[in-house]
Amino acid sequence: MNIEEMSVNAIRVLSADAIQKANSGHPGLPLGTAPVAYELFAKHMNYNPHNPDWVNRDRFVLSGGHGSMLLYSLFHLFGIGNLSLEEVKNFRQFGSLTPGHPEYGHTVGVEATTGPLGQGMAMAVGMAMAEAHLSSVFNKEGFPVVDHYTYVLGGDGCMMEGISSECFSLAGTLGLSKLIVFYDSNNISIEGSTDIAFTEDVVTRFKAFGFQTIEVEDGNDLEAIGKAIEEAKADKTRPSLIKVNTLIGYGCPAKQGKASAHGEPLGVDNVAALKENINWPCKGDFEVPKEVYDHYKELADNMAKAEDKWNELFAAYVEKYPEMKELWDNYFDGYDLFNSDEYWAKGDKPEATRSTSGTILNMIKKAMPNLIGGSADLAPSNKTNMKDAGDFSKDNYAGTNLHFGVREQAMAAIGNGLALHGGLKAFVATFFVFSDYVKPMARLSALMKLPLTYVFTHDSIGVGEDGPTHEPIEQLAAFRSLPDFTVFRPCDRTETAAAWMYAVENECGPTGLVLTRQNLPQMEGSSKDALKGGYIIAESEKAVPDAIIIASGSEVSLAVNAKEELKKSGIDVRVVSMPSMELFDKQSAEYKESVLPNAVRKRVAVEALSDFGWYKYVGLDGKVIAMEGFGASGPAATLFEHFGFTVDNVVKTVKEVVNA
User: Fold this and answer.
1) Are 157 and 189 in contact (CB under 8 A)?
2) What are the pLDDT digits (tens) for 30-53?
3) What band does 338 get if pLDDT is binned at 50, 70 and 90?
4) By the 8 A CB rule, do 126 and 442 touch?
5) What is the rounded distance in angstroms from the CA atom of residue 504 to the CA atom of residue 506?
6) What DSSP string describes 232-254?
7) Is 408 annotated as catalytic?
């Protein structure tokens, strides 16, 4: 056995031992694709194992995140992140750096949190788009300072998920030639042979998408794998699919080629049989020969030279183009938000917050040229087109308006990929009701704490004539339930400006802007205090109000108008605007008490969506005016009246609470 075979088998042995020790995991993928991973990293990746955050590194995304031991074995052997053997032994244990599925920000070297199949594929497309755009901005003749590939590995499950078709259809349209997809084709899924549910010709599908397609007949043939990678790189106009025919659970006589190899430990006897079958020289658990470690160290040291060479190139680049260094620093280290009197100017006429958002977006764009984003074929409705920014396309990677087509799932995951890559501030947009398509990807945004902005418009029954299929009811509660996801539902221009300011400056997680289709009045009492999530927008004249009305978005003006009517009955209320529950909940106890004092238990919340989540503010003594079912088709004003979002009903409800 030569040193390369031993190095490949080291990945297999470490993976099998770790999964067996944990008595949990997925050995099939690491055993089958170890040669692909070794060949790619050892000979073709532009990557520095000693500095896995190097900005011009090639990216590798394991879309089949269940095969995480493939990554951890590689990281340990190459010394990436100094992942110790002890951490490998602690695979899937609480607090370890080797969790069941790869977690971005938790384990050094992991480029994306993957697990839900197909999402890694789409995030890789986003990374490739980021590389294409940044290269168009920064590269000068003779100075390719942004020049790297994005590789992604997934199997039949990733190919079955609809998101992969969405993202690769777009990748082909865009001609992302630095995207290389490895298809681990082993014809096995959890339930058995893929033939029971998946008989399509994947290669032909990718040809239709506009990909170059290459097939490796034997997944153990390092030479063939390497030749395929170089052939993929040679195509400068198309992304590439490399189909690698593998045997799931390779090397384990009792398990290879069987569904049982996918997601359960091999068993102690089968691990021993694996080692014997591949002629592994060590008998003990987690034993790797010194010459293998020495080989990987030599490889890592040689790979590090790529960054040294790039550093020399970049130094010459900034010497010749000093103005580009400042731009580079702004892109990768951040801008200050456009924050002038014009930005915070009060509106003087009713306007839909989606329209206000479009105006503010274009203000921010002028101050932040690395702002990039778009909509799932709804930019004219979402008001997310950036003027004079150009359209990102195969012929113009410099454009910053992204056109995702009717592909909400891919759009959100691509947005994650853009944010993961670095250097860009990304946003995505669709109708709020279609956020149901977006939710799994938004969940990963929150898990990874990515600063991706989601623009959701047409936020309630105010959609009107389109009817209940297009009127979001439960969606806001769903997003409010997401940890580390901040939701803003602004009531006017000032609050919309605050929402965008927070979204652009937030580096600790995603932000959702939930915006109206219908015009809203500009509120006299609205202020930058919206950045606190909740604040007093109309105060009571009494030291202790008779009641408090809490509202968000389009219902804030309704609450303020109800306050004026209640005065006529001698009831003096405070109105609180609550554009962001998440931010309000993060405020100090003193601040929250100043806005919602415990002494005032008479409270009414008003929101034209589900009441879920509001009772933590109104308590047992309060009431919520909200949607109790789906909407209907009709003019917005008619629907608001029909469902009780009227001044009369708010007044009536407050009186009931006060007099109870």
Assistant:
1) yes
2) 999 999 999 999 999 999 999 999
3) low
4) no
5) 6
6) HHH-SSS-EEEEEE--TTTT-TT
7) yes
Cα 442 vs. chain centroid, distance in angstroms?
A: 5
Tokens of residue 518, six digits: 């219908």
Among 469, 521, 526, 466, CA closest to 494: 526
| Beta partners for residue 596, in sequence order | none
With beta carbons less than 8 A apart as the criterion, state whether 174 and 129 touch: yes
Q: What is the residue whose two structure tokens read 């998440």? A: 582
Pairing of strands 188-189, 192-193: antiparallel
**75: amino acid identity, one letter:** F
Task: Dump pLDDT digits (tens) for 188-199.
Answer: 999 999 999 999
3-state helix vs strand vs coil in the chain, percent to 5: 45, 15, 40
Compute the distance between CA of residue 399 and CA of residue 416 in angstroms, rounded to an integer: 19
> Rounded to two decimals, what is the model's pTM?
0.98
pLDDT digits (tens, 9 = 90+) for 283-318: 899 999 999 999 999 999 999 999 999 999 999 999
Integer Cα distance of 38 and 6 in angstroms:
11
Strand partners, 454: 428, 512
Which 3-state string (H, E, C) describes 123-159? Answer: HHHHHHHHHHHHHHHHCECCECCCCCCEEEEEEHHHH
Question: CB burial class (10 A; 0-12, 13-18, 19+) of residue 638?
Answer: middle
**pLDDT value, residue 425:** 97
Q: Which two tokens stand for residue 304?
A: 């590090």
Q: C-alpha angle 501/54/73, rounded to 5°?
A: 115
Which of 287, 283, 267 has its CA nearest to residue 275?
A: 283
User: 10 Å Cβ neighbour count for 380?
Assistant: 10
Q: What is the dihedral of CA 449, 503, 416, 308, to 10 degrees?
A: -80
Dist. CA 402–CA 501, nearest whole Å: 21
The distance of Cα 523 from the centroid of its chain, to the nearest Å, equals 34
Cα 57 from chain centre: 20
Is the alpha carbon torsion for 433, 436, 437, 442 positive or negative?
Answer: positive
Annotated catalytic residue within 408, 495, 555, 582: 408
Query: Do residues 514 and 480 touch, judged by C-beta distance below 8 A?
Result: no
Distances, alpha carbon 134 to alpha carbons 56, 146, 181, 392, in Å: 11, 7, 21, 12
